[in-house]
C-alpha cells in the first residue's frame, strides 16, 4: 500500500497555501417542491484544499455536494469549476463529471464486472485511454488504496470497506481535478470505517482537492483545512477545524457539537 495511505492517521494534514479557486458557488438556491433545501449558498473551494461539510440530517449537505457535478440542478445562482460554468448536458457535462469525481455512500460499483474492470471501464469509455494502459493505471490505483489482491473478484465478494476503496480508485482513475465524497463511510460497519478514512487522509496529504460530507469528526479534525457547518439549508459558519471544534461561533454549532461529540 502506498505510504500516503499508511501514514499515521492521527497526525493532522499540514495546511497548504490556498487562494486559487477551483470550485465556486455563488447565491445557490435549490428547492424540492416547497422545501427550500439550499439557501443562498456562497462557497469557494481552493485548489488542493480539503473542505469538510458537517451538520444535522436534512441540513442540505448531500444536496450541496450533488449540485457541484450537476447530479442535482439548481434553481438560481451559479456554480463554476476552474472558472467555467457547469454545463447543462451532453458531452461537456460528461467531461465535467470526469473532472469532478464523486464517491457515494452506496459504492455504485458494477456488480457484473470485476474490480479491475470497474476501475478500467471509465478510462476507456470516457477518457479514450487504451485498454492496456487503463489496466495498468487501475492496477496502480488498486495498490494505492490497498486492494490490489482483490482485482479479479466481483464487488459482492468484497467487504463494504473494500468496495468503497475500489470506488475511490475508480474515481481517481479519471484523473479528476477534485473529488466529492457524500458520506462515504455511512454504509460501513464500524471496523471498516478507518480503512476508508485512511485512504482519504492519504489523498489529502497528496494535495487532492476534496469536498467531504461526513459525520466523522475525527477525519474533519485531522484532514480538513476548513470545516463548513450547515443547518436548514444555510452555511452557518466556516472556519478551520481547530477553531470550529474548540470555539464555534454560533449557538447552533455549539449545540450540534455538544450532542455529537458526547456519543
From TrEMBL:
One of its GO terms (cellular component) is plasma membrane. InterPro entries: AAA+_ATPase, ABC_ATPase_HisP-typ, ABC_transporter-like_ATP-bd, ABC_transporter-like_CS, MetN_ABC_transporter-like, P-loop_NTPase. Its EC number is 7.4.2.1. Keywords: Amino-acid transport, ATP-binding, Cell membrane, Membrane, Nucleotide-binding, Transport. It catalyses: a polar amino acid(out) + ATP + H2O = a polar amino acid(in) + ADP + phosphate + H(+). It is found in: Cell membrane. SMART domains: AAA. It is a peripheral membrane protein. Residues 23-257 form the ABC transporter domain. One of its GO terms (molecular function) is ATP hydrolysis activity. Belongs to the ABC transporter superfamily. This is ABC-type polar-amino-acid transporter. It comes from Cellulomonas shaoxiangyii.
Amino acid at each position: 500500500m502506498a505510504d500516503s495511505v499508511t501514514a499515521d492517521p492521527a497526525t493532522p494534514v499540514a495546511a497548504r497555501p490556498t487562494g486559487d479557486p477551483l470550485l465556486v458557488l455563488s447565491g445557490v438556491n435549490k428547492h424540492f417542491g416547497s422545501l427550500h433545501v439550499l439557501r443562498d449558498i456562497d462557497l469557494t473551494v481552493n485548489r488542493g484544499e480539503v473542505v469538510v461539510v458537517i451538520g444535522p440530517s436534512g441540513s442540505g449537505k448531500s444536496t450541496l455536494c450533488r449540485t457541484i457535478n450537476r447530479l442535482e440542478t439548481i434553481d438560481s445562482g451559479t456554480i463554476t469549476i476552474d472558472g467555467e460554468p457547469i454545463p447543462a448536458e451532453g458531452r461537456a457535462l460528461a467531461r465535467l463529471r470526469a473532472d469532478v469525481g464523486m464517491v457515494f455512500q452506496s459504492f455504485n460499483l458494477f456488480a457484473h464486472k470485476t474490480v479491475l474492470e470497474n476501475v478500467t471501464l471509465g478510462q476507456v469509455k470516457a477518457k479514450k485511454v487504451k485498454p492496456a494502459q487503463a489496466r495498468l493505471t487501475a492496477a496502480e490505483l488498486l495498490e494505492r488504496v490497498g486492494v490490489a489482491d482483490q482485482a479479479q473478484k466481483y464487488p459482492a465478494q468484497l467487504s463494504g470497506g473494500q468496495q468503497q476503496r475500489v470506488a475511490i480508485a475508480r474515481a481517481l482513475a479519471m484523473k479528476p481535478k477534485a473529488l466529492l465524497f457524500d458520506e462515504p463511510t455511512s454504509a460501513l460497519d464500524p471496523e471498516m470505517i478507518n480503512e476508508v478514512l485512511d485512504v482519504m487522509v492519504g489523498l489529502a496529504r497528496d494535495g487532492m482537492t476534496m469536498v467531504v460530507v461526513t459525520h466523522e469528526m475525527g477525519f474533519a479534525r485531522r484532514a480538513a483545512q476548513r470545516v463548513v457547518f450547515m443547518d436548514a439549508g444555510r452555511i452557518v459558519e466556516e472556519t478551520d477545524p481547530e477553531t470550529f471544534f474548540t470555539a464555534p461561533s454560533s449557538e447552533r454549532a455549539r449545540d450540534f457539537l455538544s450532542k455529537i461529540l458526547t456519543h
